[in-house]
């Protein structure tokens, strides 16, 4: 019996009858040590809207840009407010979303390397929240850690500078412990681009594609997570691009696309069937050289930059089926159309041979090992899951590792579980060296700066990490439901 069928059967049983006594005892012990986080759980059979209920085919909507209120050169100043907001996605059906400045996706913040950023944040939610600047090299006390929650009705000023070399495609979202998943699936996520003043691709016009998913009940409301959502990570029946279902994107000249996977748990195996993907950049900016691919897998939280050009034609942007080894009774994976791309004339662009020069790899002076794992329990006849890091559930009061500013460290991340897990570290970009699966080690296919990457079951990866700021940093699975149930640790940088 495979793991999925076993788990599905166990939900209806009185316990894990097929498990060995030592394994069951170990799981009970781990469960008893896990901090109690009450979960909101919706019924699995809650009626949902049909997956084609939202209108499709509208012109691609540009992102709303957050106005810069500062007239000072080198300063970005703005106000960001998180609050409930009512929208009508379907005629006669009201949906209450949680949004930044009443926009979904949240506003795009743009700045240049060297700028100082000041964001006044106001919390009008009924829950404490934070703003985490995903991937940005900001000080720990400005990074929206769970320890720094802004209370209900409160506000704070986030202030940080953007160092040279950090140009890239970033985003921001809440990070309060236990409530991150809900706040994101109800709509709280925004975009952040840091630009280089010497960008070799600055002449290319840009398209911004924020891919998210949305679950809607039959009455138009956003339901709580089901037990399957908590186990596997939430995937809504609607996969949206800039808040739209299957929009129409017209391409009249070669373009630079910035793409965000802002989903809580959905993996995006992106493809333009019949055409190659020209990959220009990753989370932390441009690659050294452009790469030609048939497809690109973006894990939750990851970003990419593409060159989009070619002959006149109509092509679909697709998220191809991807098996990430979900648990329980789940529907088969399927291809999903994200958008229609109309190349309305032949387009081309000449790229420089070298897009960027990354600094030489430094020799690590310390090593750390992170192990992701899962356990299952039927304690008291109730099914529960645990998602652990190095055998422990997240504790805000515990420091798991200590590092030093400026030291380059070799981190080995191992996925000792039966499900894909994307690894993310706060406040920095790192470089992958290689990965190992089934005894075969493969070097990273190209040099890139990233802050999020996927690990297959029983796969390990080695990365080079150099912390530039003192303070507490989080590292965790970026399936938000797993992070919220304990798959997170902390490193104190001194």
From TrEMBL:
Signal peptide from the UniProt entry: 1-25
Membrane topology: Lipid-anchor
Entry's Gene Ontology molecular function annotations: copper ion binding; oxidoreductase activity
Record has Signal as a keyword: yes
Keyword Cell cycle attached: no
InterPro entries for this protein: Cu-oxidase-like_N, Cu-oxidase_C, Cu-oxidase_fam, Cu_oxidase_Cu_BS, Cupredoxin
PROSITE patterns the record matches: MULTICOPPER_OXIDASE2
A matching Pfam family: Cu-oxidase_3
Keywords: Metal-binding, Oxidoreductase, Signal
Ranges of residues in domain Plastocyanin-like: 86-198, 381-494
Compartment annotation: Cell outer membrane
SUPFAM superfamilies: Cupredoxins
GO cellular component, one term: cell outer membrane
Protein name listed in UniProt: Copper oxidase
Species per Swiss-Prot/TrEMBL record: Iodobacter fluviatilis
């Amino acid at each position: 019996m495979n793991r999925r069928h076993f788990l599905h059967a166990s939900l209806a049983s009185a316990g894990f009858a097929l498990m060995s006594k030592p394994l069951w005892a170990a799981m009970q012990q781990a469960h008893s040590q896990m901090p109690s986080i009450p979960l909101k759980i919706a019924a699995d059979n809650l009626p949902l809207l049909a997956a084609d209920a939202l209108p499709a085919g509208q012109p691609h909507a540009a992102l709303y840009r957050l106005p810069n209120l500062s007239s000072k050169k080198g300063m970005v100043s703005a106000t960001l407010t998180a609050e409930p907001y009512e929208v009508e996605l379907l005629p006669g059906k009201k949906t209450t979303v949680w949004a930044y400045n009443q926009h979904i996706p949240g506003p795009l913040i743009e700045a240049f390397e060297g700028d100082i950023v000041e964001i006044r944040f106001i919390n009008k939610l009924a829950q404490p929240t934070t703003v985490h600047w995903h991937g940005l090299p900001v000080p720990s006390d400005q990074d929206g850690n769970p320890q720094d929650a802004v209370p209900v009705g409160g506000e704070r000023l986030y202030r940080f500078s953007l160092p040279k070399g950090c140009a890239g495609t970033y985003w921001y979202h809440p990070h309060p412990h236990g409530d991150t998943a809900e706040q994101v699936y109800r709509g709280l996520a925004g975009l952040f681009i840091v630009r280089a003043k010497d960008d070799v691709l600055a002449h290319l016009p840009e398209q911004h594609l924020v891919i998210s998913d949305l679950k809607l009940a039959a009455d138009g409301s956003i339901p709580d997570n089901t037990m399957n959502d908590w186990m596997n990570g939430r995937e809504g029946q609607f996969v949206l691009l800039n808040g739209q279902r299957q929009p129409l994107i017209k391409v009249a000249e070669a373009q630079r696309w910035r793409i965000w996977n802002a989903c809580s748990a959905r993996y995006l195996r992106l493809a333009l069937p019949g055409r190659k993907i020209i990959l220009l950049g990753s989370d932390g900016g441009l690659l050294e050289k452009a790469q030609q691919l048939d497809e690109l897998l973006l894990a939750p939280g990851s970003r990419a930059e593409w060159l989009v050009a070619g002959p006149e034609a109509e092509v679909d942007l697709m998220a191809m089926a991807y098996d990430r080894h979900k648990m329980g009774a789940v529907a088969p994976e399927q291809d999903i159309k994200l958008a229609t791309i109309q190349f309305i004339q032949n387009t081309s662009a000449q790229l420089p041979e070298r897009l960027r020069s990354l600094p030489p790899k430094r020799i690590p002076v310390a090593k750390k090992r992170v192990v992701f794992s899962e356990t299952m329990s039927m304690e008291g006849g109730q099914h529960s899951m645990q998602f652990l890091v190095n055998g422990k559930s997240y504790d805000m009061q515990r420091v798991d590792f200590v590092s030093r500013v400026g030291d380059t460290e070799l981190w080995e991340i191992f996925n000792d579980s039966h499900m894909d897990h994307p690894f993310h570290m706060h406040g920095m970009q790192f470089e992958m060296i290689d990965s190992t699966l089934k005894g075969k080690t493969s070097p990273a296919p190209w040099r890139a700066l990233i802050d999020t990457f996927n690990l297959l079951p029983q796969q390990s990866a080695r990365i080079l990490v150099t912390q530039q700021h003192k303070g507490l940093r989080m590292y965790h699975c970026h399936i938000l439901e797993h992070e919220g149930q304990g798959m997170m640790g902390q490193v104190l940088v001194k």
